[in-house]
Amino acid sequence: MKxxxxxxxxxxxxxxxxxxxxxxxxxxxxxxxxxxxxxxxxKVEQKEIVLTxxxxxxxxxxxxxxxxxxxxxxxx
Length: 76
Fold this sequence. Notes:
mainly alpha, 3 helices, 0% strand, rod-shaped
């Protein structure tokens, strides 16, 4: 009788260990959207640091041109 109880105890302990391992492995949390945005902002900031002066001027001109087009469309 004791052998059967010990066998059930081992089976129960083994099952608990397997369940705990699967829970630990497959319980991945989805990344926080705010953290993703912060990472994207950091990447953009690093990209802007890498730009040279002529590239910065071109980017500024392009954005000004886009805003002028938007202003023209809203003035209609």
